[in-house]
Specification:
By secondary structure, the chain is mainly beta. It is about 15% helix and about 40% strand. The longest helix has 23 residues, at about 1-25. The structure holds 2-acetamido-2-deoxy-beta-D-glucopyranose (NAG). It is found in: Secreted, Cell wall; Secreted, Extracellular space, Apoplast.
């Protein structure tokens, strides 16, 4: 009897954890609005899957219903397969207006078998020009992979499948603005950028392959602070787990590994572009 009881007692929290995790996988119907594309964006499987498509006439896009001010936000994406040259899948956080803040992932398609470029950027107070670009260590079209943005007052960390690829530290002590007061929505779109995306616009979109489709699932913003009517769902006495996160030594080693082996562009080492010296934040990032 005693052992039966203890097994049951052990199972209850286990089931609760499983249930809570399942319940927390964000539902696209509940969390997002399709904003453009005239039927090319679709929410499927009772809100578990979202697909964007692009053809010669139009791309498509969606945005979150919520605005967030800090948080850890995860999304799984499976990118346009095959010959995706000229297509861009953008997945980003952004506030609104002239002096907006923005945290960007952009996936630049390529010819079949050639690598995608993962392009990242950070805007604060309307100013971007902070590009870092990467190749990936897997084929991002073969399966879903998790792309995460951790955004807190100290740092922004871009991660792929839990591996940090970029850290942008708050450069305010150097007199450079940092995104920390404007709430942002999540946006994503699939569009044609064959005037610049693939090899600088040399490779054009092959419309015979259209429609192009990218898929999304397992959105998770459990560790994000929803901003609504001027107040946050988070408080300093109740910060969500993982929000205060910084990189431990293992993660720092992973970051270095990615930057050494997969980074293909870093504005902070483009001396042609900054002949008068690198932007101040480059000294801490
Ligand atoms: C496409 O493939 C070429 C050749 O491997 C590579 O140099 C380039 O970075 C890839 N990505 C894009 C978007 O052009």
């Amino acid at each position: 009897m005693a052992s039966k009881f203890s097994i049951v007692a052990l199972m209850i929290p286990l089931f609760m954890i499983i249930f809570m995790r399942a319940a927390s996988a964000g539902n696209f119907n509940r969390e997002f609005d399709i904003t453009w594309g005239d039927g090319r964006a679709k929410i499927l499987n009772n809100g578990e899957l979202l697909t964007l498509s692009l053809d010669k006439t139009s791309g498509s896009g969606f945005q979150s219903k919520n605005e967030y001010l800090f948080g850890k936000i995860d999304m799984q994406l499976k990118l346009v397969p095959g010959n995706s040259a000229g297509t861009v899948t953008a997945y980003y956080l952004s506030s609104q207006g002239q002096t907006h803040d923005e945290i960007d992932f952009e996936f630049l398609g390529n010819l079949s078998g050639d690598p995608y470029i993962l392009h990242t950027n950070v805007f604060s107070q309307g100013k971007g020009n902070r590009e870092q670009q990467f190749h990936l260590w897997f084929d991002p079209t073969a399966d879903f992979h998790t792309y995460s943005i951790l955004w807190n007052p100290q740092r922004i960390i871009f991660s792929v499948d839990g591996t940090p690829i970029r850290e942008f530290k708050n450069p305010e002590s150097l007199g450079v603005a940092y995104p920390k007061s404007q709430p942002m929505r999540i946006y994503s779109s699939l569009w044609n950028a064959d005037d610049w995306a693939t090899r600088g616009g040399l490779v054009k979109t092959d419309w015979s392959q259209a429609p192009f489709t990218a898929s999304y699932r397992n959105f998770n913003a459990d560790n994000a602070c929803v901003w609504s009517s001027g107040s946050s769902s988070c408080s300093s006495s109740n910060p969500p787990a993982a929000l205060g996160e910084e990189l431990d030594t293992t993660s720092q080693d992973r970051l270095k590994w990615v930057q050494k082996n997969y980074m293909i562009y870093n504005y902070c080492s483009d001396s042609k572009r900054f002949p008068q010296g690198f932007p101040p934040e480059c000294s801490i990032n």
